Amino acid sequence: MTPVRPKVVGLDLAAEQSGLALPDGATETIVAPNVKGKRTLVDDLARMDLIQAHVYDVLFRLKPDMLVLEDYAASLRSAAAHRLAEISGNIRLACWRSGATLALVNVKHLKIYATGSGDATKSQMATAALKRAGLEFSTEDECDAAWLRWLGLDLLGVPSFPLPNSHRRILRDVKLAERRAA
After folding, report:
1. Are strands 101-105 and 175-177 parallel, antiparallel or unpaired?
2. DSSP-based helix, strand, coil % in the chain, nearest 5
3. For 25, which DSSP code?
4. Angle, alpha carbons 83-84-85 (nearest 5°)
5. Phi, psi of 64, deg, nearest 5
6. CA 115 to CA 8: how far, in whole Å?
7. What predicted TM-score, i.e. pTM, was given to this entire model?
8. Mean pLDDT for the stretch of residues 80-103
9. How confident is the model over 9-58, as pLDDT tens digits?
10. Is 76 or 14 the better-scoring residue by pLDDT?
């Protein structure tokens, strides 16, 4: 009997366009509505609602075992970073409510996992995906989401492909939040 592969979602959050890797390996983007002129609070709330609704649908319809998300970049200090933190907080709560384990990955660790270098460029991440998985992506966001999903599968003991230990060493630093029954 073939063991059941865990269902893992990778989510590369961004304020304008987020990448999503689904449990079956398919990827897609969640694109914020276009705004003419200066973005308002209402525009930000609509964007947050769009992303949250999409991710809620994935969490409650597909019932993944884990959602892997980039952790906050504490060094960022901007209005965009604040908006992204608000969106991320909503996603974290959605994981909690759905019962999915949340895995938080430092962006440098994701780059190390994919390429061996914490300073890797988006192009190097894409090249590594082509080399390791034979896949090309329409957007950088989808590529990053796929790497987050692959990292989550590796965390759960079912790596998608072999990686050197120098890449995999970051797995011990991933923060996990599992919902426990009361």
Report:
1. antiparallel
2. 50, 15, 35
3. S
4. 90
5. -70, 155
6. 21
7. 0.93
8. 89
9. 999 998 789 999 999 999 999 998 888 888 888 888 888 899 999 999 99
10. 14
Which amino acid is present at 88?
S
Q: In the sheet where 175-177 sits, what is the strand order?
A: 27-31, 17-21, 8-12, 66-70, 101-105, 175-177
The phi-psi region of residue 30 (left if phi > 0; otherwise alpha if psi is between -120 and 50; otherwise beta) is beta
Assign 3-class secondary structure to 54-104. HHHHHHHHHCCCEEEEECCCCCCCCHHHHHHHHHHHHHHHHHHHHCCEEEE
Q: Which two tokens stand for residue 116?
A: 């061996």
- Asked if 64 and 100 count as a contact pair (C-beta separation under 8 A), the reply is yes
Q: Which residues contact 148 (CB under 8 A, 6 or more apart)?
A: 10, 11, 12, 21, 68, 69, 70, 105, 110
- The pair of structure tokens assigned to 148 is 């987050």
d(CA 8, CA 138): 20
pLDDT digits (tens, 9 = 90+) for 105-128: 999 999 999 999 999 999 999 999
Rg (CA), the chain: 16
